[in-house]
Amino acid sequence: MRIVMVGAGYVGLVSGACLSQFGHEVICIDKDTRRVRALDAGMIPIYEPGLDEIVVSGIRSKRLSFGSDLGEAVRRAEAIFIAVGTPTRHGDGHADLTHVYEAAHEIAANLDGYAVVVNKSTVPVGTGKEVYDLIRMARPNADFDVASNPEFLREGSAIEDFRRPDRVVVGCESERAREVMREIYRPLYINETPMLFTSRESAELIKYASNALLATKITFINEIADICEKVGADVKDVARGIGLDKRIGPKFLHAGPGFGGSCFPKDTLALLKTSQDHGAPSRIVEAVVNVNENRKCAMAGKIADAFGDLRGKTIAVLGMTFKPNTDDMREAPALTILPALTAMGAHIRAYDPEGMEQARDILDIETCADAYATMVDADGLVILTEWNEFRALNLVRVGELLKRKLIVDLRNIYEPSQMEAYGFSYVSVGRAPSTPAGDVLSRRAVTVAA
Ligand SMILES: NC(=O)c1ccc[n+]([C@@H]2O[C@H](COP(=O)([O-])OP(=O)(O)OC[C@H]3O[C@@H](n4cnc5c(N)ncnc54)[C@H](O)[C@@H]3O)[C@@H](O)[C@H]2O)c1
Predict the structure, then answer these.
(1) Which residue's alpha carbon is nearest to atom 43 within ligand 1?
(2) Quick check: 171 pLDDT over 70?
(3) Mean pLDDT score of the chain, rounded to an integer?
(4) Using an 8 Å Cβ cutoff, are 317 and 355 in contact?
(5) How deeply is 27 buried, as exposed, middle or buried, from its count of CB atoms within 10 A (0-12, 13-18, 19+)?
(6) 120 CA distance to ligand 1 middle (Å)
(7) How far is the CA of 253 from the centre of ligand 1 (A)?
(8) Residue 351 alpha carbon to ligand 1 centre in Å
(9) What is the pTM (predicted TM-score) of this model?
């Protein structure tokens, strides 16, 4: 099939490249011409493991190409995916649909023969119908359908998620459009991936409800972690005990500094707005949004408590992206925590395997060439993102480099007993802090955390 992907970001580029591997002829259109030029030259503008290989192989097979002229591409297409950003609208928390409408107008102007316009962007319920009405108004005689096909891939494992999804959700109103969608996803269909056909509205809501439920799970375990710290329980044991219940499952039960990223924060907020607009307010989602926002600020306080007065102190920070295996800093906890520490007088020396370029642009920090360089003469270390390379630090070396052997681990990647054995004061999330005998400052952390 001839497919156009509007938007060559995390979702558009991964989906486009994977669909070209399914055998389709895909052109990714992006209005960012620099991005298009880079892609044409085989350079990948985002960090996503494995993406470079499939993009290059797509280009070589001539089934994947890039451009910025939507018109010509749309006229030849059988399916046009919209995969543009839908960030939070400034001021009110609603999803900003400017890019979606813009794309829809351009598509409308160029439709030629039957095509399915497929909305892959995460959009509030009713947007699919709005896009349909908008195109119909502009082109009363055009032959088209509008489908909703929300995307569930996760940054960091996006390609595997796209190729082997738990399900494909398609919301559309006509059998003709369903047939096109079946054809697009035929390789998955053959693999017996569940394909769920629903109304457009249900498909749109499935995406928001999924993200809200996952965000709720994270927020729930974060609150349980706070209780653990007060009562002397270990949140890792508690999470395992909960997660072994098959009705609950072990995923998304890792306590930490609060969820971030380009999806959960904006999608929970947008769902909340939708629920309020329609007179069915969701108290649960409202609580999740508020608890998570407060949590990021509370984490800065937790670090400050462990370090003591931050004025004149240097803090080594490992990890700034919202999770490992991505360069995405959107809504990362680091964006709240690090400025708060700086405001309290700390100097931040940080390293992230893929997020340095973005971090430099938006944070007032000193960046370092590697993990150990952050630690030289620092007053302690903070782990913000659980990149694999931070899980096996040479703890002897860490102890030698730091001025004081203090580690605040907001991802619980180390064991308190191991830290104690290496002589570190260790503060983590939802677990009792550990302190080597005689460390006065770290006793203060223990007292505060308790
Ligand atoms: N990032 C994720 O993990 C993820 C997962 C599932 C769903 N989603 C949803 O997918 C959508 C896209 O997210 P993303 O992270 O890929 O965004 P992104 O910001 O990485 O990419 C969007 C791209 O669209 C381009 N664009 C915007 N308007 C355009 C237009 N009119 N014509 C051509 N190109 C245009 C931008 O230049 C940009 O390159 C969002 O609605 C998001 O919520 C994202």
Answers:
(1) 122
(2) yes
(3) 95
(4) no
(5) buried
(6) 9
(7) 28
(8) 27
(9) 0.94
pLDDT of 277: 94
Distance 81 CA to ligand 1 centre (A): 11
Closest CA to 250 of 238, 239, 258: 239
Q: Give the sign of the dihedral formed by CA 12, CA 170, CA 264, CA 410.
A: negative
Give the pLDDT band (50/70/90) at residue 252.
very high
Segment holding 358, helix H or strand E: helix 356-362
Distance 208 CA to ligand 1 centre (A): 16
* pLDDT tens figures, 325-366: 999 999 999 999 999 999 999 999 999 999 999 999 999 999
Question: Which of 5, 84, 211, when mutated, tests ligand 1's pocket best, judged by the most ligand atoms within 8 Å of its CB?
Answer: 84
What percent of the chain is predicted at pLDDT more than 70? Answer: 97
The residue whose CA is least distant from atom 17 of ligand 1 is 85
> What angle in degrees, to the nearest 10, is found between the helix axes of 200-231 and 264-277?
120
DSSP assignment string, 215-284: HHHHHHHHHHHHHHHHHT--HHHHHHHHHTSTTT-STT----S---SSSHHHHHHHHHHHHHHTT---HH
Contact in structure between 132 and 146 (CB atoms under 8 Å): yes
Structure tokens at 114: 């039957």
**Residue 437's pLDDT is what?**
66
Q: Which atom of ligand 1 is nearest to the CA of 46?
A: 20
Ligand 1 pocket test, pick from 5, 6, 11 with the greatest ligand atom count within 8 Å of Cβ, gives 11
Q: What are the catalytic residues?
A: 263
Q: What is the pLDDT of residue 274?
A: 95
Residue nearest to atom 18 of ligand 1 (CA): 9
Phi, psi values for residue 119, rounded to 5°: -90, 110
Tokens of 10: 């995390």
Residue 449 has pLDDT above 60, yes or no: no
Ligand 1 pocket at CB < 6 A: 6-12, 29-32, 35, 83-86, 99, 102-103, 121-122, 151, 153, 155, 262-263
Residue 99 alpha carbon, nearest atom of ligand 1: 28
Contact 77, 8 (CB under 8 A): no
**Per-residue pLDDT at 390 exceeds 50:** yes
Task: Work out the percent of the chain whose per-residue pLDDT is above 90.
Answer: 94
Helix (H) or strand (E) holding 381: strand 381-383
Kindly report, residue by residue over 288-306, the tens digit of the pLDDT: 999 999 999 999 999 999 9
Residue nearest to atom 21 of ligand 1 (CA): 9
Distance 437 CA to ligand 1 centre (A): 52
